[in-house]
Design brief:
With 577 residues, the protein is α/β, with parallel strands linked by helices. The chain contains 15 helices and 16 strands. Strand 5, helix 7 and strand 6 form a beta-alpha-beta unit. The termini are far apart.
Length: 577
């Protein structure tokens, strides 16, 4: 960050995302002293707010959605940096007034962040309006008074984005979804690149801003003990799971068009898979990290429709703005393969759904069974490394241990690391490095846990049940009896990275398009099963499985893992016989 003033312009400044996420995150950064000293935050939206009305509006959001972090004195100093400029992001009305107001506020060279907290259909018009007014910065082309047409954009023409008074940087942040398919994502990229350079684009994926997701690379590459095992020789399968307990709620209109594949798989789940399977980058530089992600995504083989499961929770069709005969999937499961040296032959399972029995996001690395069992044991589960993204943030390592006073009886136990037990919230940027408060604990799973997998002696019949190691209860008290602090919100970290110019956690153009190339054929196959099957030569399309709200999901997801002999640490709906 430079000494220039920094202006954050929020398009959709009066909307729900700004109230729920952006305002609390920016206020938290202000309290911790992590915003640039000369920061202005300008909301831009159709609501006819005055500056004070806008400040009151955001205060209500912070008090309502992040009450534990609210402080009246800190808010008073933060509110001095909040302003409002009314306008319409779609029609172009108010942009000239916005430019005049911001330039007057800055009074000279300044840096700017443009945050598009709007519908995705407005990303292109916002970028083009900024380009026409010379507000994007960094590209020295002649001014154009009218938007370029599709033919000119296809030929690589750019809108003018240079203003001679500008000596600061310009960055634009775009919320998901980024396109609805490959074609729309490519078109949006063409429009954005007509105004901004790729280095100025920050495509938001809030999952990557979670501390637990960021820690995956540190866990892998800052610890030498795991990386030698991180390959096809020792790993049986990898499972990325994001389950939600809530239904679609008020988002029925959007969700019925998007479905679970567009909403979760194309972005969140594939990005998490990249973190756990990518090759080590040469450095932690943003481009080095993003290069390895792009390589990984390009190595994923096309997914067969027979290796997918789609489901819909009972009652979804009665949700507001959902078609009464909707075939939209609210649950999805995929098996895919990464065609490279490290992961050849290792199946990777992605699962996500709504209205399930519990909210959980985690990555499970299931290791291979021992090649020979010398003990006379009943079937037991393989070693399991579980990276818990939320809500039980931490890392769990499951392994077998002998039960005391027995001859050969074993039980699954866990070594557990929890963020809440080790790290206190860092209220200030200059605090010294944190020190662990306790050693990892070992917890014994209850005897009633179903045991499973091929880890068994040849003299004992194999069991068909999946291993299901239940999550350990989250620590409710920390050292000295205090309640462990919560981790910073993902938006807080990602906004800080935008201000710093660190794009490591933001998907790049090639990664976005590679993800759509993988997901598009599945979306099309689910929408037109017969047509897709004729083109792919497959035997059958996955039926739309109906599951009960509050259940673990469709039984078909269990069967998808069972066909490969894989077990399901999160239950996949619990194993049914």
């Amino acid at each position: 960050m430079t000494d220039n003033p920094t202006t954050i312009v929020i398009f959709g400044g009066s909307g729900d995302l700004t109230q729920r996420k952006l305002a609390p995150a920016l206020f938290s950064l202000h309290r911790k002293g992590r915003l640039p000293k000369k920061t202005n935050i300008v909301g831009f939206s159709r609501t006819p707010f005055s500056h004070q009305q806008y400040r009151d509006h955001l205060r209500q959001g912070v008090q309502g959605f992040a009450p534990e972090g609210f402080d009246a004195t800190a808010w008073a100093s933060f509110a001095e940096h909040l302003y409002y400029s009314p306008g319409d992001s779609g029609t172009g009305e108010g942009y000239q007034s916005l430019k005049t107001f911001v330039e007057k506020l800055e009074s000279g060279p300044a840096n700017r962040v443009y945050y598009c907290a709007t519908a995705p259909t407005l990303f292109g018009p916002i970028a083009q309006a900024l380009g026409r007014l010379g507000m994007a910065g960094g590209i020295r082309d002649s001014e154009l008074s009218t938007p370029l047409g599709p033919e000119a954009l296809a030929k690589g023409a750019r809108l003018s984005t240079f203003d001679s008074r500008d000596s600061g940087w310009r960055r634009i942040v775009l919320e998901k979804p980024f396109g609805s398919d490959l074609a729309s994502a490519q078109e949006l990229n063409r429009v954005l690149h007509s105004v901004f350079d790729e280095s100025q684009l920050y495509r938001m994926d809030h999952f990557l801003g979670k501390e637990t997701a960021q820690n995956i690379l540190f866990f892998r590459f800052a610890n030498s003990m795991f990386e030698p095992l991180w390959n096809r020789n020792y790993v049986d399968n990898i499972q990325v799971t994001v389950f939600e307990a809530e239904g679609v709620g008020h988002r029925g209109g959007y969700y019925d068009q998007a479905g679970v594949l567009r909403d979760m798989f194309q972005n969140h789940l594939l990005q998490l898979l990249c973190l756990v399977t990518m090759e080590p980058p040469a450095s932690f530089d943003a481009e080095a990290v993003r290069n390895e992600k792009a390589k990984l995504l390009s190595a994923i083989a096309p997914v067969a429709l027979s290796d997918t499961v789609r489901g819909q929770y009972r009652g979804y069709r009665g949700s507001p703005r959902v078609a009464p005969d909707s075939q939209t999937a609210t649950y999805g499961a995929l098996k895919l393969h990464i065609d490279n040296w490290r992961w050849q032959g290792v199946p990777c399972y992605l699962r996500s759904g709504k209205s399930l029995s519990a909210k959980t996001s985690q990555i499970d690395v299931v290791f291979r069974c021992p090649p020979h069992i010398m003990f006379r044991l009943p079937p037991f589960g393989p070693n399991l490394l579980s990276l818990r993204i939320q809500p039980d943030e931490g890392i769990h390592l499951s392994f077998q241990a002998k039960v005391p006073e027995s001859s050969e009886e074993t039980r699954a136990v866990e070594m557990v690391f929890r963020y809440g037990d080790y790290f206190a919230e860092r209220e200030h940027a200059n605090l010294p490095p944190l020190v662990p408060r306790a050693s990892a604990s070992t917890q014994v799973a209850p005897p009633s846990v179903p045991q499973a997998s091929a880890c068994t002696s040849a003299r004992v019949p194999q069991a068909s049940a999946c291993m299901q190691v239940p999550p350990s209860p989250r620590a409710e008290r920390g050292k000295g009896g205090e309640v462990p602090p919560s981790l910073p919100d993902a938006y807080e970290r990602l906004l800080l990275d935008v201000l710093r110019g660190d794009a490591s956690l933001f998907p790049r153009k090639d990664a976005i398009e590679s993800a759509w190339r993988l997901i598009d054929p599945i979306v099309q196959g689910w929408a037109s099963p017969d047509l897709a099957l004729r083109s792919l030569g497959e035997a059958g399309a996955p039926p739309l499985a109906i599951y009960d709200p509050g259940s673990p999901g469709p039984i078909d997801a269990d069967d998808l893992l069972a066909r490969n002999g894989s077990c399901c640490p999160t239950g996949c709906g619990g194993y049914r016989t």
